[in-house]
Amino acid sequence: GAAAAPLPEEDCMKLNPSFVGIALSSLLAIDLWASKRLGVCAGEGSAWGSARPLMKVIEVSGHGIPWLLGTFYGLCQSDSSAAREVLLNLLFALLLDLVMVAVVKGLVKRPRPTHNKMDMFVTISVDKYSFPSGHATRAALVCRFVLRHLVLAVPLRVLVVLWALIVSISRVMLGRHNMTDVLFGLLLGYALYGVVEHCWLSPATAPALFALW
């Protein structure tokens, strides 16, 4: 009889998956497993459930709204042109961070870990997605910005770095994110600072903005 017509490619079983596919699947499985194991503050009944309130305070310290409101207030109260320039660029950095994280989350649409409790402080629509961690992105961005533009003693500089690390680690401990969400967030925040430096706002480049203050 006539030979059977070949099946469409999408209907064929892939018996020999690529090495890259196997590697990515393995990494994803390790990421999910390790993130769940490290989610020790994901609930009151978790291994470190008693530390959950402290972790949530740390969570708020890295949230975008306190940073935006604080920066805007400082910008309105400042009477120094140099301070206003730094604060205006910090405000620009925070807004850029919010937009980029929202765009990536909307494109990737990775769900939150199954052990996460949706009791976060002030969420918006894209916050139901997990990749990347906006807190980690903001922590890395603010850390680089502060270390570059504020004159701080060494102990304070160490505290700024520790804050960024603790905020990032708390995302996994609270069960909010997987480890890869946090790692990519840190890399994205680090890169966004470079964009802010490249597009630095000054009275010469953005006179209209500085005229408002």
From TrEMBL:
Keyword Oxidoreductase attached: no
Membrane topology: Multi-pass membrane protein
Principal location listed in the UniProt entry: endoplasmic reticulum
Signal peptide: none
Domain Phosphatidic acid phosphatase type 2/haloperoxidase as annotated: residue spans: 86-197
Membrane spanning stretches: 87-108, 150-170, 190-212
EC numbers on record: 3.6.1.68
UniProt cross-references to Pfam families, sorted A to Z: PAP2
A GO CC term assigned to this protein in UniProt: nuclear inner membrane
Keyword Lyase: no
Compartment(s): Endoplasmic reticulum membrane; Nucleus inner membrane
Catalytic activity: (2E)-geranyl phosphate + H2O = (2E)-geraniol + phosphate; (2E,6E,10E)-geranylgeranyl phosphate + H2O = (2E,6E,10E)-geranylgeraniol + phosphate; (2E,6E,10E)-geranylgeranyl diphosphate + H2O = (2E,6E,10E)-geranylgeranyl phosphate + phosphate + H(+); presqualene phosphate + H2O = presqualene alcohol + phosphate
GO molecular function: sphingosine-1-phosphate phosphatase activity
Keywords: Endoplasmic reticulum, Hydrolase, Lipid metabolism, Membrane, Nucleus, Transmembrane, Transmembrane helix
Family: Belongs to the PA-phosphatase related phosphoesterase family.
Protein name according to UniProt: Polyisoprenoid diphosphate/phosphate phosphohydrolase PLPP6
